[in-house]
Amino acid sequence: MPTFIDGKTIAARSQASTADEIARLRARGITPGLAVVLLGDHPASRAYVRSKDKTCRELGMYSRKLELPASTTQEELLHLIAGLNADPAIHGILVQSPPPRHIDEAAVVRAIDPRKDVDGFHPLNVAALAMEDPSALVPCTPLGCLELLRAYDIPTRGARAVVVGRSLIVGKPMAMLLLAKGADATVTVAHSRTADLAAVCREADILVAALGRPKFLGAEHVRDGAVVIDVGINRVEDPADPRGYRLVGDVDFDAVAPKCRAITPVPGGVGPMTIAMLMGNTVRACRALTGGE
Ligand code: GUN
What we know:
Layout: E1 3-4, H1 7-27, E2 33-39, H2 43-58, E3 62-68, H3 74-86, E4 92-95, H4 105-111, H5 123-130, H6 140-151, E5 160-164, H7 171-179, E6 186-190, H8 197-201, E7 206-209, E8 227-230, E9 234-237, E10 245-248, H9 253-256, E11 262-263, H10 270-289
Helix pairs in contact: 1-10, 2-10, 6-7, 6-10
Bound molecules: guanine.
């Protein structure tokens, strides 16, 4: 039987320690504040934004949830971000991705004050991560994956890691984190155009699936004894579920789990870690901005 990596428990532990830090800051009159911006009404994005807002409040942070119509213009969004950059009550700014198609997401990311860029998507933070600068704000999902490996004492030093997916949100920063000194993995980044993907994936001691395609990786992609981190959160139709859908990962869990040393379930694996890391990043940003570091 593989170890099922329990993201809910690890995330709860991380959030408890973040809540302690928040309490200490509040005792000094500083309340960390996070602004989450959502354009449009994409159901999964709305659910994520609601969950970020709720967790923020539960931990004692100030949360500002800004839900704007999909018709919001680039100019209006940039104006809003300029206001948040200048607002001393806000220490973290997140614009939920993906935005509507008329929005230039790269320009939006560049407009966010890099010190408030709790997503770690700003070019200065991307560069800081590549340079292994400890002050970098690091993207939450890959940071959460690394935390899970640490929490379960899964060694990365010298391990062969294969990251499937090359997004700015997960794949690229995940590869950089695993490659960095201290983590010391040997990293391959694969993607939808990789020749003989299954053979590449079978090289992995640690396989990170982040391509956003339901159950795309099967038993043929995993070698015996591998650790599988499934970042995918895909809604698939399920008439038997009262919501009409259920969540599945990028990995075919039932086919893969018996081969693994350890595997993250979906839901309850990586998902809760993303929010926990966002809370941690917001507190870090707050401390840096208020001189409390
Ligand atoms: N959409 C899916 N994951 C994320 C994330 O980590 N940050 C943002 N801003 N959007 C997302």
